[in-house]
Amino acid sequence: MCLTACSALHVVNAQQMSIAGKITDAGGAPVSGVTVTIKGTSLATSSNESGLFTINANPNATLVISAVGYAEQEIRVAGRNTIQVTLQSDETSLDEVMVVAYGTAKKSTYTGSAKEIKASEINDQPNTSFEKALTGRVPGLQVTTTSGQAGAAPSIRIRGIGSMSASNEPLYVIDGVPVISGQTSQLGDYIANSNNVMSTLNPNDIESITVLKDAAASSLYGSRAANGVVIITTKRGKTGAPKIDFKSSVALSPTWATDNYESAPVQDQINVLYSVLFDSRKAAGLSDEAANTWVLNRFNNNFGRHGYEFSTNGTSMWENVNIAGRTDGVENREGKFFNWDDALFRTGIFNANDIAVSGANENTSYYFSLNYTTDKSRAILNDYNRVSGRVNLTQKIGKMLEFGSNINLAKTKLVGMNDTRNTSTSYLFQTRNLLWPFYWPTDYKTGDPWTARYGSLAQNQLYYNNEWENWSNISKISAIESLTLKLLPELNVKTIFSYDETETKDHIYYSAKHYSGATDNGVVHEMSTNIQKLVSSTTANYNKTFGSHNIGLLAGFEAEKNNTDYIRATGRDLPNSSLHTVYTAGSLNSTAYSWGNTIMSVLSRAEYNFAEKYFASASFRRDGSSRLGPIPRWGNFWSVAGAWTISKEEFLKNITEIDHIRLRASYGVNGTLPTSDFDWRALVSYGSKYMTLAGGGLSNSANPNLSWERNYTTNVAMEFGLLQNKIFGSVEYFNRTSKDLLQLVPQSMITGFSSTMRNIGEINNRGIEIEIGSDIIKKEDFKWTLSLNGSHIRSKVVQLSQGADIIWTDPTGGDARTRFIYREGESTLAFFGLEWAGTDQTNGRNVWYVNAEDGQGGDFDFNGRAATYDYTKANRVIIGDGIPKFYGGVNSDITYKDFSLGLNFIYKIGGKLYDAASRDVADDGYYWERIRSQYFVENTWSPSNPSGSLPMVSGRDLEDVNQVSSRHLYDASFLRLKNVQLAYKIPSHVTDRIRMGAARVYFNGANLLTFSKFKNADPEVNQYSSRGWEIPIAKTYTFGIDFSF
Amino acid sequence: MKKIFLIPCLIYMAAASSCSDFLNVEPTTAADAGAAITTAADAKVIVNGLMSKLASASYYGRNFPLYADAKGGDVTITSQGRGYDYLYVFNHSESANSYSSIWSQGYHCLAQINNLIESIEKLKAAGSSENFDNHLGQALTARAMIYFDLVRLYGEPYAENKNAFGVPNVTTLLNSDAQELRHTVEENYQQITTDLKAAEDLLSKTKANGFINYYANKALQARVYLYMEDFTQSLAAAEEVINSNVYTLYENDKWAESWTTEFGTESILELGVYPNEGDLGNSSLGAMYRRAAHGSSAILGYFTASTNFLDKLAEDEEDVRWSVMAPDELSETSTHPAERLGSSYKYSGSTVLAGDKKTGNSTAVNIKVIRLSEIYLIAAEAALKLSSSDKEKAAHYLNAIRKRSPNLALATPATINMDMIADERSKELFTEGHRFFDMMRWNRSITFDDDLGAISTIHREKTIDRTFYKTILPIPLDEINANPGIKAQQNPGY
């Protein structure tokens, strides 16, 4: 039947004429190899090296111009002999074609909620990985960066928090295949660290990123799609002669983006410490004179060892401490203090170099790239580098078959990462906390390195940095092989086989001189985590138009196998400090094991539209996973959606102000799998070795009925374009209910276990996403586009197991950081702690609201409420919500002649952030020898500052500051100029002269301006809206050049 | 072309037909619980695992012995904020510093025991001919030991009020939604003695390094009956251990050395702590009592001997027990010019960190749960406190230990009294996890050496006794949240 249909179209018209044409790209450069077909026939030709072509055609014929990497165009001959064709890149074509689940879709006909970001919008930023560049670009997408350290993995949340215990990260799909994401290193068991497997993907290899938000867009990914899907498509060659692109950039980070708990001057620091210690002696019953002597003795012991001598003029609690130098050493430090900031931080340098060769003809398209990136962060001992290469190849075999191969090789190395609040392992910010300017890395008496602990828990990092090392190397090989069979013009079958092997090698070494290696006489661990992922999918796609009826059908099958092999070797008792190898160790220890899971799925989708005016679609997927027991193993996921392009209706045709209005709606179900492979089976595990004998025991409280979390998402949206598209945008409402949440439900410990993973509880996220833009100026050589996006999310816990509250601690820092509560009807990010009422202005003491259920109790009234000085009498309540009221981005792009200026702001309005570090830098007396911040010294109550908002310092075992309380809660609102980019495109008359295709120089400034209510440190906090002593984000200045031949 | 189209179809069919195999992924570090215990060898592996779990940091490896010493008055702290000082100042509530690890780890170990016992019973019922006796005996004895520890932490002393709440008595493997309530102290002790008696005859009488044998069971009976103030049974059990001659006391010249060796001649129950197993490194029990920065700057100098204890030991400058004491951090400061031997190195092997395994590792040191010296002191106390006091015997058993202070006069039936025995226990068993429990059962008050470090605290008085509510731990908040019925049974004061 096909053959008859095709040959019927072979009508050759006798009245032919010769047509000559020239094909160029948007920059005016000729493009060779472009296919020119006469519509409705199989007659075709292609352009030569100068972009020229000739063809014989009917004067009324239509030419179809198609080229890989460019939008297809149809041009009516209309009797012309010569035709000029300017190709529009896919990326800039008017009706964008987006990559979506298992295929592509035209933006104007797509029924789901998806947002595509083109690479051109986000490259040129000094990021090792693409995620950070998405900040403020996609409504409903929240990108949070926990740390400014090199190689750190940002966290992405699409439409809020839908899960309590399982992952809230989206599913990542690269070139049609789900991939490994997040941290792959096992170093976390030894030191806190952060390596990001996504950074093995060179951002410059990315063609586009599509974020799938609603069920219609994502439920085709079934059991892993509840948190949305991020689809990444890598570049492929475009029709034309081989093109060489070279990009190079250097970025400098000389300063932090904001203040970071700036320390008080050394004189203030010692004065505060004097008061604290003095008070502690008074509490122990000493006289003023004895207390003064004791404190000065302590100063002269602890700080005196470093060459200082201390005295006071009087003996009260509020003396000014005189600091003098000692003259009995090789160095007199009078008036000099050591600047640890300068010693531990440097100007960060980021350097990226890319070379890519690409091209295509009718049968073959190719893209090769090589990248070398180094990122030396502001912190000494924190370096990242990456070498990566990519080969993307497609080859047509005959008329029906196309073979594709995408191969990525990458190696990344991350050195010296460490982010934690714990002062004994994270030293980087001890400069604002424990490393007093009185401490020097050398002994003032001898000039030798200082190796003991200082008076507090701080130590000489310049010495210890030479006594330990750690790194995490990722080697990645990923091959995605595909075969597309075009059985009919309407029907193709595509099969993909992908193999991804990611090997993460971790190394950690502590010398015998390091405090962590001393008891072992030196220790070295080598770890290898090898993740293999195999995905095989086969899909058949059928698209057919019958008159005004357009039908698209998809059916497929997918299987995925994940396996991780882990090996660790540990050597203790190292004989030689220059040899950091397990081989040399006196005592050896090792382990090796593996784990994995499998998923098997069938999937299908049907799409229909009538005259591109009325749209309907439905999808269905059935998944089986080894992470669930044999009975609940299989689950169904589906969606339905519809859309209506109102502006195509007759009654709107005459209203010229309205160019485009479209409504769409969808509903569907998708899921989230448990994160653990074996929660459903009761196990005896054999990890309890005893006296070199194997030992085992029950290791879990299993739940054989464990199942998926299920997400039910409703999405309603309106898209619009008004006043000749002067104003365009969309408003979208979503309502996402997550049921059967995976939760570690606490159980009586008398059972022998503290929790079981169960499907219990319900969370609801609903909100509005707005995107609005305007081409304010749209002239030939002057364009200005301004766009704004924003999201409002209301994220609430609807139902919990037996209605019982669940108190949980911040996963990024545990109980030492902050505490949250899940309570029915409350936010999913509700801070839970004591309510601090402030400082009693009459005596400088901490005041706490009692918050008893009956409103009674308390020792006195404060602001009309029951209050107490004793925090143990106060009740914990919800003290704030970490979820912002509104957040998003503002983007402005101005092009004037060959210059362009882009501004990218991000903002957050409302919500609280919990500042765990403020219990360290604004400590009113629990931990004596801390360095207090400037803001604390300024605002602390004292007889001479009776209006101080922070309490008086005290040495009386004061635990107030350590409580999780509203004292450390701040307004999280901020506005940040995330990126500013100024580029100059060197005019073609210049580049032509030097036989260059195109050239461009640019400057990018990141985090240059920040406006916030929270002034003490960076307001851009992690996904739990908390912060501690992470390495802060820096201001970064990037200078780059791109050119192509 | 048709062939190419067939390939995916074939893959699909092949995969679909083997779905159930493809979706079955087995763990590599664990076995399904139902199939894990079928032979005596399997039971042995579970017993090994049980011993490892008992020796974890949460329980005997550190937290349990540390509790009894940090609160007993024989040790003190020089500064707050280094860690575990909340024990010393009694800063705990049901939600903060509840020290719940022994509760959770204790019941976790009990679940292992109950599972093992039930599995053995099932196998026996199914006609298994394997000999499970020794494993069963160890499991029952361990169950008694855990309940004895839990009731001492959470219940009032037996002699004070045996009708008070003890801990929930569980002898079967519970399912995950079970919510058990507390039994009385007396009911707990009944379970303890029942298990100990049931286990006796199942256990081997030869020395069993790192495991429980007949004499460990008897020694535990001596201790339990002493706490129950059943002095006849306590003395009988203690004497059976002493008279068996399986264990012998260290001579004075061997006493110091005994700490550098594992499984010495006094060691009746000793839990193995080995490198690469339960070694806690810088947070080991030994590290808690070392001088700050000794061996590593991560050693913070958590606890040191109280002045009162040092004065007691100083009654005889040649007391052999000085051999494990070394200068603490106060020795070097100007305010304490004299050398202060406040740091205890028992669990570091020696004052030069010899460890107990000749390996250079000084933190993987075995935990001595019951030593023969304690059994002599139990015998002495039981004999003294018999309804018809046997002072001759009491003096005999006490002197076997008291002679470790060569310059002190030996006790005689005329001079012996409870203070002498109490002081000897304090000196001999210093930092071995006894002092606080002893003071509680004796109903003595504890005066803390807060003056040494000028410690000011709002959480307790300088002197406490067992009427102070914080001498027993609160049922942890996590337990109450998951088991609401137990809220009404919370210990008073919390």
Distance separating the two termini of chain A: 48 Å
How is the main sheet of chain B built? Answer: 2 strands, antiparallel
- Biggest interface, CB < 8 A: A-B, 91 and 96 residues
| Biggest sheet character of chain A | 22 strands, antiparallel, barrel
* Secondary structure tally: strands of chain A: 55
Strand content of chain B: 5-15%
Describe the structure.
The complex is a heterodimer of chains A (1045) and B (494). Chain A is mainly beta and 1045 residues long. Chain A starts with a helix and ends with a strand. In chain A, 49% of the residues are buried. The N terminus of chain A is likely disordered. The radius of gyration of chain A is 32 Å and the shape is globular. Chain A is built from eleven helices and 55 strands. In chain A, a hairpin with a 3-residue loop joins strand 22 and strand 23. In chain A, 7% of the residues lie in helices and 47% in strands. In chain A, helix 4 crosses helix 5. Chain B is mainly alpha-helical. Chain B is 42% helix and 5% strand. Chain B has 18 helices and nine strands. A two-stranded antiparallel ribbon of chain B has the order 2-4. In chain B, strands 3-7 form a two-stranded antiparallel sheet. In chain B, helix 9 runs parallel beside helix 14, helix 14 packs antiparallel against helix 15 and helix 14 runs antiparallel to helix 16. Classes of the chains: A mainly beta (1045), B mainly alpha (494). At the A-B interface, helix 4, strand 27, strand 28, strand 32 and strand 33 of A face helix 1, helix 2, strand 1, helix 3 and helix 6 of B.
Topology:
The complex is a heterodimer of chains A (1045) and B (494).
Chain A: H1 2-8, E1 17-24, E2 35-38, E3 44-46, E4 52-57, E5 62-66, E6 73-76, E7 82-86, E8 97-100, E9 103-106, E10 114-118, H2 119-122, E11 141-144, E12 155-158, E13 171-174, E14 177-178, E15 206-212, H3 215-218, E16 229-234, E17 240-256, H4 266-283, H5 288-302, E18 308-312, E19 321-325, H6 340-344, E20 348-360, E21 364-376, E22 383-397, E23 401-415, H7 461-464, E24 468-486, E25 491-510, E26 523-546, E27 549-572, E28 587-610, E29 614-625, E30 634-645, H8 650-653, E31 658-672, E32 683-685, E33 697-698, E34 709-722, E35 727-739, E36 742-746, E37 755-759, E38 762-778, E39 782-799, E40 806-810, E41 814-822, E42 830-834, E43 836-839, E44 846-849, E45 860-862, E46 865-868, E47 876-881, E48 886-896, E49 899-909, E50 912-915, H9 918-921, H10 934-939, E51 969-971, E52 974-985, H11 988-993, E53 998-1012, E54 1026-1027, E55 1034-1044
Parallel strand pairs in A: 1-7, 13-16, 50-54
Antiparallel strand pairs in A: 1-4, 2-3, 2-5, 5-6, 8-9, 10-15, 11-12, 13-14, 15-16, 17-20, 17-55, 18-19, 20-21, 21-22, 22-23, 23-24, 24-25, 25-26, 26-27, 27-28, 28-29, 29-30, 30-31, 31-34, 32-33, 34-35, 35-38, 36-37, 38-39, 39-48, 40-41, 41-42, 42-47, 43-44, 44-46, 45-46, 48-49, 49-52, 50-51, 52-53, ...
Helix pairs in contact in A: 4-5
Chain B: H1 2-17, H2 19-22, E1 30-32, H3 40-54, H4 63-70, E2 75-76, H5 85-88, H6 101-125, H7 133-154, H8 185-200, H9 214-227, H10 231-244, H11 252-258, E3 267-271, H12 285-289, E4 304-305, H13 307-313, E5 325-326, E6 343-344, E7 367-371, H14 372-385, H15 391-402, H16 418-428, H17 435-441, E8 446-447, E9 463-464, H18 477-482
Antiparallel strand pairs in B: 2-4, 3-7, 5-6, 8-9
Helix pairs in contact in B: 3-6, 6-7, 7-8, 7-9, 8-9, 9-10, 9-14, 10-14, 14-15, 14-16
